[in-house]
């Protein structure tokens, strides 16, 4: 299995602290050593860093740990391979363009079988169940809408599509585009919304603390979502199996 | 205007030496300071590093200069903005998936106007003429072929499509997928094929030499293609205006 990390904020924020703890689970405090990746939405653009090396020993992960890229929406993943060999093509998060927007997807779980694709507009490059499921979702959306629908319509359509995937196995995922972050919990997904008054947080995977009161303004709001809580002194909310959330600006819309 | 760099080899090779010289043109020996990017094909996967900062001062470029990623096919770009503001969404190279393969595109030039898109399967995320031209090519190919055609058929179809773009302005570009590297020269594009007996090369943009005889085997073949020659002691071949090349395994197929 894998682990997921997402961040969604109302102001560009760096993820260095959370990634420091999360990336240790890729070989140090966890066994997810089969590659990792992280995608940052920045304005209308998006960039992804990927490596098939474990996140604890990857030079590219070193860069991400040290270089505070500011973003309103981030999706990261550390991989413990189930389907598909260890390779760049099988490394999450995956990316596709639809309606002139970048879409980013990462999955934690395993699907026993896969639904038939509705067309071949989006086709997997690698051999994971995860990228197949992502392409299946993108094909279904592209058939339904010629352009980006209203956010509530998009949410409702995604929710209606999910049973076709969730009935086939364990399907925790993060899906992002622009400032929107969709999160589905099948088994394990926790989140926290940090806002004023900010306090100090201590990582669960390293003896490292940060006092967010020193780094934020009164208006900032930062939601962090992860397979398992990243800090050991804050109250994370455990999502329920089947729960499907949409965050924007660090706030849960649905 | 911008500058292009491509590398195409028969064995995975790092591009550290060439990128060292090339990236200096992004603010030190050249004025291309409006962002840069590099894409590496590795097996069936692909990863891109992008920054809107100049390549001479980008921490991500530092990583690429220091971390010898081995690839058979690389496309890099340094940008001097003509159309589209300085932003990640406007930073080359661009990427799309077609036929279950990643396609990477970078452009040097400027198109005065843009052809009408044949459908909306591929839609620009940013506002450059370059990404528009790339999406136009991808749409045209996707309409013609439901899956990847034979390489000679693909080459012929791309060549037949080019006049629709080249008549609108200056259109030097590199287009890659897997081990294939297409290169079109409108005004400036030079290449060199390094093979046994290997010799020493000296950068044009830095007082730095490398003796390829020490780093290679007798079978290696490495083609490097760039807007302007990267070394000052080797014989680069200047491509002719209108020339359209396809390289694979460091060899020119067409």
Characteristic key phrases:
homodimer, 254 residues, alpha+beta, Glutamine Phosphoribosylpyrophosphate, subunit 1, domain 1, seven-stranded antiparallel beta sheet, six-stranded antiparallel beta sheet, 5 helices, 15 strands, 19% helix, globular
Provide an overview of this structure.
The structure is a homodimer of 254-residue chains. Chain A has 254 residues and is α+β, with helices and mostly antiparallel strands. Chain A has a single domain (3-252), classed as Glutamine Phosphoribosylpyrophosphate, subunit 1, domain 1. In chain A, 19% of the residues lie in helices and 36% in strands. Chain A has helices spanning 16-24, 59-66, 129-144, 151-161, 163-166, and strands at 3-14, 36-42, 45-51, 70-78, 94-98, 101-111, 169-177, 180-184, 190-195, 200-202, 209-211, 221-226, 237-238, 244-248, 251-252. In chain A, strand 2 and strand 3 form a beta hairpin. In chain A, helix 1 (16-24) packs antiparallel against helix 2 (59-66). Chain A is globular, with a radius of gyration of 17 Å. The interface between A and B is large, with 35 and 36 residues.
């Amino acid at each position: 299995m894998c682990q997921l990390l997402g961040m969604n904020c109302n102001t560009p924020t760096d993820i260095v602290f959370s990634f420091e703890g999360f990336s240790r689970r890729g070989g140090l405090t966890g066994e997810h050593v089969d590659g990792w990746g992280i995608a940052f939405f920045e304005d209308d653009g998006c960039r992804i860093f990927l490596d098939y090396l474990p996140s604890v020993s990857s030079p590219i992960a070193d860069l991400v740990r040290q270089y505070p890229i500011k973003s309103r929406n981030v999706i990261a993943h550390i991989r413990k391979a189930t389907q598909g060999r260890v390779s760049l093509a099988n490394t999450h998060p995956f990316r596709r363009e639809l309606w002139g927007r970048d879409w980013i997807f990462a999955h934690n779980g395993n699907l026993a079988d896969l639904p038939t694709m509705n067309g071949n507009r989006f086709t997997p490059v690698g051999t994971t169940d995860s990228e197949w499921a992502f392409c299946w979702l993108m094909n279904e959306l592209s058939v339904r809408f010629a352009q980006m629908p209203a956010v509530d319509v998009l949410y409702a359509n995604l929710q209606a599509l999910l049973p076709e995937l969730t009935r086939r196995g364990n399907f925790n995922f993060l899906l992002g585009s622009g400032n929107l972050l969709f999160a589905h919990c099948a088994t394990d997904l926790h989140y926290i919304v940090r806002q004023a008054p900010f306090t100090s947080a201590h990582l669960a995977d390293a003896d490292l603390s940060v006092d967010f009161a020193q780094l934020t303004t009164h208006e900032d709001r930062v939601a962090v979502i992860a397979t398992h809580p990243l800090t050991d002194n804050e109250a994370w909310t455990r999502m329920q199996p089947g729960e499907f959330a949409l965050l924007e600006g660090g706030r849960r819309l649905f």
